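### Sample
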Amino acid sequence: MTYRIEVDQEICVSSGRCVAEYPERFRFDDEEVAEGVPGAPPLPDDATLRLARACPSGALLVFDAQSGDEIDIFGT
């Protein structure tokens, strides 16, 4: 399965974990809230799940890239 990861900017607390670990994939916007970098390559599935699980606010959402369904990151 291939995953897609998104930032829910409404609940992001700007911890910076995603930005620090994958600066080629995430950055801070003008309000210091994490966002995806347009055109960035996808992360490997294992890195996607690990990063989403480590987000302190749960702002990193993971989806099945084909179906668009959200993935239960703690159930996989």
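The first strand starts at residue 3 and ends at 7. This sample (Ferredoxin) is used throughout the tutorial notebook.
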